[in-house]
Amino acid sequence: MPRKKQKVDTLEEIETNIKLLCDQSNNHMKVREYYKALTGYNQALELNNTDINALISRSKCYLLLGEASKALQDAETALAEDKNNIRAIYQKAESLYYLGQFEQSLMFFHRGLRARPELASFRLGVQKTQEAIENTIGTKTRSTVPPPKSSKSRKSGDNTPKSQGPNSARPQMVRQKPTKADLERRNARKLLGELCVDKEYLEKLLLHPDLVRADTNTENISALAKEAVCFLNKRQEFWRQQRPCTALPNHKNLPNDALPKWF
Predict the structure, then answer these.
(1) For every residue of the chain, which 3-state class applies, written as one string?
(2) What pLDDT score does 210 carry?
């Protein structure tokens, strides 16, 4: 009898510790300290690797860090414990969306919407995923359609070259072909919007020879700048896969948890 009571006390103590660790990590998430939050979630899952709340919370944290594959893995583990858990369904749908698997993401957003039609998050998920699929299909369709023929065609009997017309003496301006770097910069501005300016600044900052001198024991500016550039590169690649020719909305209109701690 004492052994059984001791076992119950141990399980209760583990659950209490998991809750405390998750609560601390949730507070870190609110102030965008995602790596500190991740450490707490990892410690909680070391105590119980199937704790659903810890798995779902870590999945959300992974998404904010740009680790969509790990976020999906945690969401699937949580669903293996409870296939009807609405938060786990949402996390799986979001993870699939960020991985560019829009069809599967749409299926799970619909699944959550059927279970909880009053939740706006699932309605918005269905909408944004449908738009992503339409944009992807539309881009592929446009790339396969040949350009339209000119409506102005020469008459069969007119063999006079255009260069001999009355305006042939006007000098023609030669348009310089953009370089590969120019095209990449142009695409980055379309995809990242105003965040592209921050990315370019950070990239130039990392090349500055005096940057290492600015690093201290308490604040490593180089590491933070590299971390920020890495995050923006992942965001840019995601938007490139979702809608190649559409710019990201103004970052001022994004929710606070959609941006890393550096902004």
Answers:
(1) CHHHHHHHHHHHHHHHHHHHHHHHHHHHHHCCCHHHHHHHHHHHHHHCCCCHHHHHHHHHHHHHCCCHHHHHHHHHHHHHHCCCCHHHHHHHHHHHHHCCCHHHHHHHHHHHHHHCCCCHHHHHHHHHHHHHHHHHHHHHHHHHCCCCCCCCCCCCCCCCCHHHCCCCCCCCCCCCCCCHHHHHHHHHHHHHCCHHHHHHHHHHHHCCCCHHHHCCCCCCHHHHHHHHHHHHHHHHHHHHHHCCCCCCCCHHHCCHHHCCCCC
(2) 62
